[in-house]
Amino acid sequence: MTLVTAHPLDRRLAEALPAKALYAVGGRVRDEFRARFDPTIPPPKDLDYVVTGLSIEALVARLRSVGRVNVVGASFSVVKLSALEGNADLALPRREQSTGTGHRDFLVESGPDITIEEDLGRRDFRMNMIARRISDDKIIDPFGGVADIAARRIDIVSPQTFIEDPLRLLRAAQFAARFGFELSDGARAGMTAAAGLAGTISAERVCEELLKLFGTTGRPSVGIEILRTTGVLAELWPEVVEGLGVDQNEWHAYDVYRHNLETADAAPFGDITLRLAALLHDVGKPRTKDGPHFYRHEHVGADMAAEMLARWRFPNETIATVEHLVRSHMYAADPTLAPKAIRRFIKRIGPAHLERLFALRHADIIGSGLPKRSQENELFEARVAQILEEKPPLAIRDLAITGDDVIALLIEHGAAPAGFRGDARVGAVLAALFEEVVDDPTRNERHLLVERAKRYIDERYSIGN
After folding, report:
1. pLDDT score at 80
2. According to the model, what pLDDT value does residue 98 have?
3. How far apart are CA 245 and CA 371, in angstroms?
4. What percent of the chain has pLDDT over 70?
5. Are 158 and 165 in contact (CB under 8 A)?
């Protein structure tokens, strides 16, 4: 049975390679079957193939008629192909033997004498152990992967699966969250037995899988809960587990752990940074609990969040943004604030972070598990939007005076020698002027700022003061 319309590259490759030698494999075939059982699933993007019965030299020779080829990793016998019809990876079939507990600790054999069934058998989960022969769409499914996909199940062939490659601990969790699949009892038991090996996974690979988990269209809490119940989360982010059983005040229906998960799920899909901030926004509460209160938990949590993300080498920009959102999430949303107070709020948060911070507040409310109490947040956000429309100065660069102007004034008033290039005093003058302008934007006029800068310099920096 044909599952999908053939990709144009399939036809080109089938013409260049021997009959019955070319197989689509991996996530592509898995997702073709997922689409068969659920028509809302988009077609797969990756083009991964296995070619049987050929040496790497013979494969490269035949592919040169299709496009540009590049052999990568001699021991893995993988060819990267760039053709008019698309880009693809083509590999010889492989068999692997684990030699340790690392992602790369395998003895790998590849070549024309290895069967497609052997190649499939080395893969992680049954649902990924399926191939489709391009020439006639014959399905090669020696391990029951199609049945697992139909049952929305993640299962393993060997209890050693996670011990052989601990990265699969994270892959199982993110697949479950992305696809809405359940772990089989065997897979769950295998994860639990191998949980202690999570610390052997490279930081870069942990980060990669967690980014996929939080980028899922589904609920990231599904993956996090799998990691917790199998013991993996305690190896990677024990700080998140600290919230389990930590009760909150009457404004929350859940303990801290469940509240953080619900908030992560409520954060908008597509913004991984925001979802990470949502999971970690109250991570500091268990360490600051004082009866029903959690004093300064946002500051403790911000420091914790930054360390947790740095531990697994998340991008610096992601770490900085999550830390800022966690530290800022307890802001008072008071729509009656004076305009200058709202301008100072905007300045403190930064215009670029406002949308995320407001989204985090709404996710936090949903994650409480209780009905929303008022429209206060929406009214406050409307006030902020109104102030932004007025385009007030929100940074020193928005001043009608520059650092060069201040340098000239310092020289003019004898506070600096000719040829002076600037020092900390320049920044101090600009900061003082900016504080005044935040309170009263009408003062952001060049002549007014020049006069105020002269007085400031005379009071603090002129000779004799």
Report:
1. 94
2. 61
3. 22
4. 95
5. no
Residue 338 tokens read as 């004076």
Decide the pairing of beta strands 48-51 and 86-91: parallel
Instruction: DSSP letter for 5, please.
Output: P
What is the rounded CA–CA span in Å between residue 318 and residue 272? 9
Return the amino acid letter for 340. Answer: K
CA pair distance 2, 36, nearest whole angstrom: 10
Cα distances from 78 to residues 51, 96, 438, in angstroms, run: 10, 15, 60
Q: Give the start-end residues of each E strand in 285-357.
A: 289-290, 293-294
Asked if residue 430 lies in contact with residue 399, where contact means CB atoms within 8 angstroms, the answer is yes
Give long-range contacts, CB 8 A cutoff, 24+ apart: 375-383: 376/333, 376/334, 376/335, 377/333, 379/333, 379/335, 380/333, 380/334, 380/335, 380/337, 381/333, 382/335, 383/335, 383/337, 383/342
Residue 110: helix, strand or coil by DSSP?
A: strand
- Altogether, the residues listed in the chain come to a count of 465
Residues 6+ apart with CB under 8 A from 349: 328, 331, 357
CA–CA distance from 19 to each of 13, 15, 135, 429 (Å)?
Answer: 10, 8, 7, 78
Start-to-end C-alpha separation, the chain: 90
**Which tens digit of pLDDT belongs to each residue from 287-319?**
999 998 999 999 999 999 999 999 999 999 999
Cα 262 to Cα 352: distance, rounded to the nearest angstrom: 25
Which pLDDT value is given to residue 3? 47
- Cβ neighbours for 61, distance < 8 A, ≥ 6 positions apart: none
The sign of the dihedral angle between the CA atoms of 358, 360, 361, 366 is: positive
Q: Which of 134, 130, 124, 133 is nearest to 155 (CA)?
A: 124
Assign 82 to helix, strand or coil.
strand
Fill in the amino acid letter for 203.
A
Identity of the residue numbered 95: R
Gyration radius from the chain CA atoms:
29
Q: DSSP per residue over 10-34, as a string?
A: HHHHHHHS-TT-EEEETHHHHHHHH
Whole-angstrom distance, CA of residue 258 vs CA of residue 248: 11
The single residue listed with the structure tokens 């499914």 is 141
Amino acid found at 19? A
Distance CA 354, CA 176 (A): 32
**CA 105 centroid distance within chain:** 27
Instruction: Please give the biggest Cα pair distance in the chain.
Output: 94
Residue 127 phi/psi, 5-degree rounding, is -65, -20
